[in-house]
Design goal:
- 31% of the residues lie in helices and 26% in strands.
- The protein contains three helices and four strands; from the N terminus they run H-E-H-E-E-H-E.
- A four-stranded antiparallel sheet has the order 1-3-2-4.
- The longest helix is centred in the N-terminal third of the chain and has 12 residues, at 19-30.
Length: 86
């Protein structure tokens, strides 16, 4: 999935933002990105039935490829730190 979005430079991915992982792997992915959104707190997962499941073991980061996706992240209402790359 990540490779597809990097090749087409369009889409939004969500990754865990472990600091050591961020400095290498996400840094490489973000270098192609239009924007990133570091989520405040932990995101929540839900089962298909609507019942809340667990949370990830680390904070999350959304990486947007394409101007429209960057704008969608900016206007998403998700609390966190939004960074746009020009």
């Amino acid at each position: 999935m990540v490779v597809l979005q990097l090749c087409h430079s369009y889409g939004i991915i969500v990754l865990l933002s472990y600091l050591s992982y961020l400095t290498h792997e996400q840094g490489n992915r973000a270098s192609w990105a239009n924007a990133v959104l570091f989520v405040k707190g932990r995101i929540k997962f839900y089962h298909v039935s609507g019942i809340q499941g667990g949370t990830p073991s680390a904070p999350s980061v959304f990486i947007a490829y394409g101007k429209e996706n960057a704008e969608a992240l900016k206007n998403s209402g998700i609390e966190g730190k939004y960074l746009e790359f020009k």
